[in-house]
Amino acid sequence: MLRTVLLGPPGAGKGTQAVKIVEKYNIPHISTGDIFRENIKNGTELGKKAQEYMNKGELVPDELVIDLATDRLLADDCRNGFLLDGFPRTVYQAEKLDEFLEAHGQKLDTVIDIEVEKEELVTRITGRRVCKACGASFHVVNIPPKKEGICDLCGGELFQRADDTVDAVETRVAEYNEKTKPLVDYYTKAGNVVTIDGALPLDTVFAEIVKALGE
């Protein structure tokens, strides 16, 4: 049984580590993006409401995000635990999650906070390149393509996403620090945060996460 939350700024490597965690512990990876897409695709009432806000280019309000996330936690595959990623995003959402879990006789075990310096995040994200044809990801420093600007897999053209530019990254990191970083303080008070240095090699980061979560 493992109920955990994964925190960290954009570019910290949460996605990579999430895949490893769910494989090792055999728990579902629950991200807000996936929940939104699933509900919208299935035409649920919550999905329709979320779609209305997204169509207007507005943020989905806290209450609706909480309803979508907690509804997902009631699914059968969450009985033996879950990994939350992208939720909670604010202290208010964290408080509501705690209330929901308590009402169901549960609580979070460990909150993993992957920390990376802003300069490193900017280098990581601005170096990302994606294939227009097949969607494969590369990095100009870490995973460079054999031929610059060309996908190794299908020969398609590589491009930099609009939200991977320096200005966009700095905005995203600033937004994370303002809205989500206070969550680290919130969970530190609860005594269940483990901070991991995300600048370490991927396998080392995962080994530290396993040490924090236990076998």
Give the CATH class: Alpha Beta
Uncertain parts: none
Nearest-integer average pLDDT: 93
> What does the main sheet amount to?
5 strands, parallel
Helix fraction, binned, reads 40-55%
End-to-end distance: 11 Å
Indicate how many domains the architecture comprises: 1
Number of strands: 8
Numbering strands along the chain, what is their spatial order in the largest sheet?
2-3-1-4-8
Global geometry? globular
- Percentage of residues in strands: 15-25%
- Rg computed from alpha carbons, rounded to a whole number of angstroms: 18 Å
Supply the CATH architecture.
3-Layer(aba) Sandwich
Order of helices and strands: EHEHHHEHEHEEEHHEH
- Our count of helices gives 9
Organism: Anaerotruncus colihominis
Family: Belongs to the adenylate kinase family.
Region (NMP): 31-60
Domain Adenylate kinase active site lid: 128-163
